[in-house]
Amino acid sequence: DQQVKQNSPSLSVQEGRISILNCDYTNSMFDYFLWYKKYPAEGPTFLISISSIKDKNEDGRFTVFLNKSAKHLSLHIVPSQPGDSAVYFCAASTYSGGGADGLTFGKGTHLIIQP
Amino acid sequence: DAGVTQSPTHLIKTRGQQVTLRCSPKSGHDTVSWYQQALGQGPQFIFQYYEEEERQRGNFPDRFSGHQFPNYSSELNVNALLLGDSALYLCASSLVGGLNEQFFGPGTRLTVL
Predict the structure, then answer these.
(1) CA A39/CA A88 separation, integer angstroms
(2) SS3 (DSSP) at B71
(3) What is the per-residue pLDDT across B41-70, written as a single tens digit (0 to 9) for each?
């Protein structure tokens, strides 16, 4: 049973336009959400995160939106650049015993930025 | 500031053998988590170590075991290797009690023949 779902395996966006990557989750205990970017032959790189007490977090070109009632989050990249072409993973976690637990990842979305 | 490092980069083993993978966390981090990433999938949580003890474990069999040393570095051991253990093994470090931004190493690519 997949608790974090990224239903679009791939997404193609023109350079300069907005890229919107979506993620759904089923576990209502998740209280922290993260987006990672991964290039081939490298480990995932942390991009941006959001706590469940917020509905929006911005960092430069990246904005994450959280809709708790719908159990849905999205990552917006504006404007999209060629270097943004990578696989993007949505991840979620809970806290227990005073510390953050292991991350639960989606399967990823391959973002391709077209020139 | 050195990030998370892992060794070796690649490894080829045969079924039934045992393997040990190594990880050094980012400077200042005290918690190490291990993940398995199969082809076309997202990383799957194996276990997490803090203060030299296993703090949390994902849905992996006992063939997967680990260790954390006083300098916070960690090892992942897999016994009785199966073909299905072929994957990219990722190590991530973080600070317990902090926000859960885990920083990942480049991974070890394990191939079981």
Answers:
(1) 9
(2) coil
(3) 999 999 999 999 999 999 999 999 999 999
Do A45 and B104 lie within an 8 Å CB cutoff? yes
Number of other CB atoms surrounding residue B59 within 10 Å: 7
Whether the CB-CB separation of A14 and A112 falls below 8 Å is answered with: no
Q: How far is B7 from chain A (nearest CA, A)?
A: 13
Q: Which residues of A touch B55 (CB under 8 A)?
A: 97, 99
CB A45 within 8 A of CB B43: no
Residues A28-75: pLDDT tens digits?
A: 999 899 999 999 888 999 999 999 999 999 999 999 999 999 999 999
Chain A residue numbers touching B103 (CB-CB < 8 A): 46
